[in-house]
Amino acid sequence: MLTKFAVLVSGNGSNLQALIDEVHKKGLGEIVLVLSDKEDAYALSRAEKADIPAFFVDPGEYPNREEYHMTLLRMVVEAKAHFIVLAGYLRILTKPWIDVFPNKIINIHPSLLPKHSGKGYYGLKVHQSVLAAGDKESGATVHFVDEGTDTGPILLQEKVIVDAGETADSLQKKVLKIEHKLIVEAVSQLCRELKPTQAEDEDEIVAMSDILRDIN
């Protein structure tokens, strides 16, 4: 039985593509669901081309972030995912996600955490912050998600050198290559560690459903 995981995205989805090519297609794990908060996210097209269920869920149709994320959470549980990957997903998950998937949600961040992190640090803004600080090195980090923002335990991290004359664009491209490598390594590791037996899989699905019911 393959370990199953869901991926949440907001943009282009190059990290998702790395997971499709190096994990999903190679049978190391199975992406069972891709969800996005952006209708025009190219990541959705990447998933569809790989015959992976992919959906845009419009946050504007929900009265608040709690109800929006509860809808996404139900979809992930119904897809029977064993863990979650945030691959360029720009929203902060609500507490029920942490309750249902403790230490089973990972995020990729384009800096050497804890530096250049927290609310508002995403995309080019992270690399602009690195350059403004005069840092000599940057990198990428895969970490577990907790109730904070970019504060969970670090799983993997790798550095790159910030060259003289580096721009935010050039640094972003350099770090993105590291992101692709790290996200594949981290997800492959979790697929091995969380691989369930048939009985364990059924028990886990029941347990997650019970937690969701209690939250509601």
Describe the fold and architecture.
- Strand 2, helix 2 and strand 3 form a beta-alpha-beta unit.
- With 216 residues, this protein is α/β, with parallel strands linked by helices.
- It has a seven-stranded mixed β-sheet with strand order 3-2-1-4-5-6-7, with helices on both faces.
- Helices cover 43% and strands 19% of the residues.
- The chain has a single domain, classed as Rossmann fold, CATH 3.40.50.170.
Q: How do the strands line up in the largest sheet?
A: 3-2-1-4-5-6-7
Question: C-alpha Rg, in Å?
Answer: 17 Å
N-end to C-end Cα span: 31 Å
Low-confidence stretches: none
Q: Give the helix level as a range of percent.
A: 40-55%
Give me the CATH architecture, please.
3-Layer(aba) Sandwich
CATH class assignment: Alpha Beta
How many domains? The number is 1
Q: How many strand elements? A: 7
Task: Return the string of H and E elements.
Answer: EHEHEHEHEHEEHH
Mean pLDDT level: 93
